[in-house]
Every structure is written in structure tokens, then in C-alpha cells.
Amino acid sequence: MVKKIDVRGFSCPQPVMLVKKAIDAGENEIVVMVNDEVAVGNVQRLAQNNGFTVEIKRQQDEKLIKLKK
Amino acid sequence: MQVLHQLPKFDDPKILVGGTHMDDAAVYKIDENTAIVQTVDILTPIADDPYIFGQIVAANSLSDIYAMGAKPITSLSILCYPPEKIDNKIVNSMLKGAADKVKEAGACIIGGHTLKDTEVKCGLAVTGIVAPDKIVTNSGAKPGDRLILTKPLGTGIISTAIKANLAPTKAINKINNNMCQLNKNACDAMLEVGVSSATDITGFGLLGHVFEMAEASNVSMIIKAPQVPIIEETLEFAKMGLFPQGSIMNFEFVKPNTQFEHNVDAELQLLLCDAQTSGGLLISVPEERSETLLNLLIMKGITSACIIGGVINEKERRIYVN
Description:
The structure holds two protein chains of two kinds. By secondary structure, chain A is an alpha+beta fold. Helix content of chain A is 35%, strand content 35%. In chain A, strand 3 and strand 4 (62-68) form a beta hairpin. In chain A, helix 1 (14-24) runs parallel beside helix 2 (37-49). The two termini of chain A are 13 Å apart. Chain B has two domains: 4-134, CATH 3.30.1330.10; 146-321, Phosphoribosyl-aminoimidazole Synthetase, Chain A, domain 2 (Alpha-Beta Complex). Chain B is 35% helix and 24% strand. In chain B, helix 2 (88-104) links the parallel strand 4 and strand 5 (108-116). Chain A binds chain B through residues 11-14, 16-17, 20, 37-38, 41-46, 49, and chain B through 160-161, 163-166, 238-245, 248, 266-267.
């Protein structure tokens, strides 16, 4: 199951906190919807340091971050 | 934010340091022996304990005076808060914290202004004095100087970790002590030894302030990343992606003017740009006096002080990090 996290409208550290919660819960596939550029970099750092591969898709102002272990 | 460059220019010849070099405080000559140094800074709460927050507010504002090699004498408090939400006891503790820190600096708070606002903001406008020929600006760094930093980095990242409820008490205490520490002893030491230039590290992060000093002095600077003091827990939070927006903006600002060697990883690059509150002094000192200054700083209790790099002739980039 892919875990979906919508953090559009949130700024750091909330996006990182929510993604960290999912990682700590053992999720292996996570999709994060985000529109804050700082959060994109921070979520990417968190995921890569936890062994996830990161794929970022940009659609206008929104970004879709796919995390997979 | 940098908007004050839009301020119309004043031509008074008694303005010794104004807004042109983005220095820490303004200096105005009174007579041949005395100039006044003025600064104002306001913070939103960065510590849960109001007494500690008050101390940080004062240490942060006083720091601009110390960075100019001056002695603080008077200050005025600025307080904004919602009276319907904030108990008077909290206001009292905040002001006591600020007052105790100002006393420790040997200065006084002689008034202020309070206004209603939707959130708490607290600051101090500080006035200091200095002999006009003893002013330490951010534009005096010379090739061959060494660079000394007096406090470790990490307050921005750890503050974000506190907001995320991830920071252990030990880390919180560390940054609180760090931010409450006056730059008074560091200032005394640099005046005793004699230095080329100084500034304090605050919102633009270490590299942001290195850039300002290098630009104002028309030189380039080398920063040896592994020698930069960093609060231990900061690296762990950096790996978790807990960088505040200010730190990322600082990185984007310095990037076109900075060359990072390959051994400096992405997190360390960002960490060197971490926005600090009440950070240490960055001092540019002639090489032959650098060890004397470092030893004196350590003797005065500033045990985190380290030589973090040096000054070279102006090159293609302002900053070289290796």
C-alpha cells in the first residue's frame, strides 16, 4: 500500500514531521504532495538518509515526491 | 529581510558607519574622543521559558554593539504582545530576563515602548560608546588574516527540531546557553589583542556574514568546514531535514559566490548557512596574533572559539569552503 501524505499549505517542520512519522511506522512507499520549496529539499534529505529513493514530479506550483525503499 | 538599502542616504559627515556596508550597528561621531553606536533588534519567541527568552533578546541585541568593539551603555525595550492571551507574569519574566542580561553587560534599560499585537515580539534598541579610532567594522579584513568564530553553529536547526518536538532537553539547554552567552568577553579579548575586522553571526548564517565581511573588505575568504564548531546534535537534525526556511534562503544567496569542495557534503554546506540567533563573533585577526587571541578567548571562558579559516586576495569567488 502506498501511503499518501498531503502537506500542501504546510511549512517546515510540519511536512518533515509527518513524513518522519510514516517512515518510523515502517512505510516503504510514500507519496508526498507538497507546495513549499523548502519542504521539498527537507523531505528529500530525510528520505535519502533513511535509505529511500526519491523521485520528484513538478506540476505548476505543486510537487509530488515519491519515496520508495 | 534586506530592505534598508532603500532608505534615502544621509550625508552628515559625523556618520562614521551607516547603512552602506551592511555593518552590525550605526556609528555617529559626537567629538574627537567619543562616538555613539546604535542598533535595534526584535525577536519572536525562540525559547519556551520567558525568562530565558528575555535573556536571549538582550544578548542578541547587545551583540551588535560588541561586534563593533564598543561598550553598551543604555537600552530601550520594545515589546509587542496580545494582553488578552499573555499573562502579566510572563511579560514580567521576559523583561526581567532582558534586564538581568543588560545588567551583566554593565549597561541599563532606561525606558521603552509596548504595543498590542497578535503575537509576542520582544527587542532592545541599544546605544554604546566607542573611541572613533577604535571602531571595529566588517570592512577591515586583510589578506593573510585568520578567521576566528567564537560560538558553535546550530541554533536555527535545533530551534526547528524543538518546534517538531524532536529535540532532547540536553540539546535545548545547549542552544539556550549558547544564545544567552554575551559576546562581551569575546569583544574584550579582541580589543586587547587588536584585530582587523569583526561581525556577529545572526540571521544570514556563518557564510552569509562571511560573504558580507569579504565583500565589504574587498577580499576572498577560505573556510575550513571541518574546523567550524557545530553543536553536536545539529548534524543528526540536519540529516532529518529540519532546516528552517531562513537557512535555505541563506544558502541560495551565497551559492553563486561560494565554491564548495567535493568533501563538503550537502548537509554541511547548508549547516554553514544555518540562520543563527545571538550567534558568536566572526573575527578577522592578523596571523601573528591569531594564537594569542584564541588563547585569550579560551582563558575568558569562550571554549568553543576556533580558527575556522583565513583571508586571501580577492579572487573569482568571495568564499572557498574546503
